[in-house]
Amino acid sequence: MRDMPCAPAAEHNSQPILEVLRHEFRTVSSVLEVGSGTGQHAVAFAAELVHLEWQTSDLDENHAGIRLWLAHAGLANVRPPLLLDVGTSGMLPLHYDAVFSANTAHIMNLHEVEKMFGLVSSALRSDGVFCLYGPLREGGDFNAVSNAEFDESLRRRDPAMGIRDIEQLDDFASTGAMKRVRRYAMPANNMLVVWRKYRSGERRDDT
Predict the structure, then answer these.
(1) 156 is in which domain, residue-wise?
(2) Structural domains counted in the chain
(3) Does 203 reside within a domain?
(4) CATH code of the domain covering residue 180
(5) What is the pLDDT of residues 26-58, one digit of tens each?
(6) Is 50 exceeded by the pLDDT of residue 112?
(7) Best CA proximity match to 129, nearest among 105, 104, 99, 102
(8) Contact by Cβ (8 Å): 35, 57
(9) How far apart are CA 94 and CA 33, in angstroms?
(10) pLDDT at 79 over 50
């Protein structure tokens, strides 16, 4: 494992995320992960959620690391990474029961975040769910001083980065025929938010 990329955050947050996904993905058979990073989440979750097929994806530069983790895990239900750049990719032709992404929205620019929601909508089957993990603001406010400091550090690196407002993500989701259905408080002042794609013929104001 010496040559395999390792993200300490993925080691720390995998278990609490998994406990949510056990519930949210209990009836799911296919998942697309947007931004698989090192591949650690993919192997951790696919190993426990053996009823589903996990499709990894990321920029080309991260594929080698993902493939190392996949080879080490030797799991039959996790797929090699797709090339996916949310800023330039067109609509996805494949359809999944669920999409998962972790710690991506705050390192993308806002246009890419909006584009990601469009890609998610194109990839999801009717009634599918999108689970997004990471730090978020609500009503323009941070839920912790540490997140305000993190946001400031992100914007110093790149003014286009930053912690996003959940209400703005709801707007992006609505454009893609999705609505927020659940939100989970997570360790280290993060959230896991779940949006569901409307069923065919479902009224947009239905709950």
Answers:
(1) 8-197
(2) 1
(3) no
(4) 3.40.50.150
(5) 999 999 999 999 999 999 999 999 999 999 999
(6) yes
(7) 99
(8) yes
(9) 13
(10) yes
Q: How far apart are CA 48 and CA 22, in angstroms?
A: 9
Partners of 54 in beta bridges: 31, 78
Q: Residue 113 domain-assigned? A: yes
Determine the Cα–Cα distance for residues 30 and 118; give it in Å rounded to an integer: 19
In whole angstroms, what is the distance from residue 159 CA to residue 172 CA? 21
The answer to whether residue 176 sits within a structural domain is: yes
User: Three-state secondary structure along 112-172?
Assistant: HHHHHHHHHHHHEEEEEEEEEEECEEECCECCCHHHHHHHHHHHHHCCCCCCEEHHHHHHH
- Reported for 181-187, long-range contacts at CB under 8 A and 24+ positions apart, including other chains, are 181/129, 182/24, 184/20, 186/13, 186/16, 186/17, 186/20, 186/133, 187/12, 187/13, 187/16
Q: Which of 28-32, 39-43, 143-147, 200-204 shows the lowest mean pLDDT across its residues?
A: 200-204
- For residue 46, being part of any structural domain is answered with yes
Residue whose pair of structure tokens reads 């996790």 in the numeric block: 78
Q: Which residues of 164-190 are buried (b: 16+ CB within 10 A; e: fewer)?
A: beeebbbebbeebbbbbeeebebeeeb
pLDDT at 2: 59
Label the pairing between strands 190-197 and 30-33. Answer: unpaired
